[in-house]
Design brief:
The protein has about 375 residues and is α/β, with parallel strands linked by helices. The chain is about 40% helix and about 20% strand.
């Protein structure tokens, strides 16, 4: 991958290392991009079911706006056992790791590459794995960006439904319904056909099935929102966390539920309007915009490096606060809607208070905030 900067800047060509790392739970395929820098974390990605690092993150990382981030922070893509492109069928005697075990393979990856800390970027199953890793190894995780995170275990009805689905649907069909919502499947035929083709021709079906069953057998994250004066030592994510979900995603309810269980002073929920099951594919520029402010709020991107981003922010963009039906989660919701979406939002009975996009960044730097934030864009 070669990145060229505008304005005659020198060509940026990060070093790329690809390795299969032996862990206690099998070989983990990793792609390391960039050069390690002292006192800076690495962005560590983990994909969802039926995907690998390319199909899950290539659109995001190939976007021109991502250049500013990868110039400052190296990237390590991690793929679950047997999920990389061209993977051979895992041996019959191999017992596929649980979600907990996959998370416990990550310290081996960090040790292998000499990484001190990471900013996790995970989707679906990958988001769950990174969350588990952060809970058990908080000193290794500076921040988390979790797309389509489901913190709960499969219930009895879900388990029964999954069994029926296995009997009546092909694996690619089952994976598609996991990744995308009904509306997207019915309307975005080109995107669905592309991913169905990828799952069918690029991924090892047997291995994907094992990864899927492992995810469906996951335990709950067992996180609890800390309440001052009560359970201040509750088990929860201790790092800054950005939750991301498209409003047409099948994971919307699960992500909102996860938000209600996390520390409100460290958590932001980004709900993306007119967006499907894979926000990083559907609307990569908006995800990158939020990611940049998130990383800047952690102190790893200078304000100077954000100049181009600010110049691209539409003057019609805003963040608006509203009180929704999820008040039980004590969520202070903010909406950054596009001009053409205002009519729809007014029908939903939400008030619109314009706030500059920089306040989204400030919400990560101001640790005195008493409520979690939901940003819908």
């Amino acid at each position: 991958m070669v990145l060229e900067e505008n304005g005659g800047d020198s060509v940026f060509e990060p070093q790329i290392t690809e390795e299969h790392i032996d862990s206690q739970y099998g070989k983990v395929h990793c792609i390391m991009t960039g050069t390690l820098r002292a006192n800076r974390p690495v962005i560590l990605t983990y994909h969802d079911i039926g995907l690998n690092h390319k199909s899950c993150f290539e659109t995001l990382f190939n976007h021109e706006d991502m250049r500013e981030i990868v110039k400052h922070l190296p990237v390590c893509h991690v793929e679950a056992p047997g999920q990389h492109e061209g993977a051979k069928t895992l041996p019959s005697e191999y017992i596929y790791p649980s979600m907990d075990q996959l998370s416990e393979a990550l310290p081996t990856v960090l040790k292998h590459f000499g990484l001190r800390s990471v900013i996790g970027l995970g989707v679906g199953a990958g988001a769950y794995i990174l969350s588990k890793f952060a809970l058990n190894h908080p000193d290794m995780v500076d921040g988390l960006v979790l797309i389509n995170i489901n913190p709960n275990a499969e219930g009895l009805m879900d388990s029964v439904a999954n069994k029926i689905t296995e009997w009546t649907h092909t694996l690619p069909d089952t994976v598609i319904t996991h990744l995308f919502g009904k509306e997207e499947i019915q309307t975005n035929h080109d995107l669905i056909a592309t991913y169905r083709h990828h799952i069918t021709t690029t991924m090892n079906q047997t291995n994907v099935g094992q990864f899927f069953r492992s995810y469906n057998s996951r335990n709950p994250l067992e996180v609890e929102r800390p309440i001052p004066g009560a359970n201040i030592n509750a088990r929860t994510l201790k790092c800054s966390t950005l939750l991301v979900v498209g409003d047409h995603s099948p994971a919307v309810e699960a992500v909102v539920d996860c938000n209600s269980k996390l520390n409100p002073t460290k958590t932001t929920l980004l709900k993306m309007a007119d967006c499907g099951g894979l926000p990083q594919v559907d609307q990569p520029a908006k995800v990158i915009e939020a990611l940049k402010y998130f990383i800047q709020g952690m102190g790893y991107l200078s304000s100077a490096s954000m100049t181009r981003l600010r110049s691209r922010t539409s003057s019609s963009s805003s963040i608006s606060s509203y009180d929704g039906s999820r008040s039980r989660a004590h969520t202070n919701e903010l909406q950054r809607g596009r001009t053409q979406s205002h009519g729809t939002e007014e029908k939903r009975g939400r008030s619109h208070t314009d706030i500059s996009m920089e306040n989204f960044s400030n919400s990560h730097m101001d640790q005195s905030i008493s409520k979690s934030t939901e940003v819908a864009c």
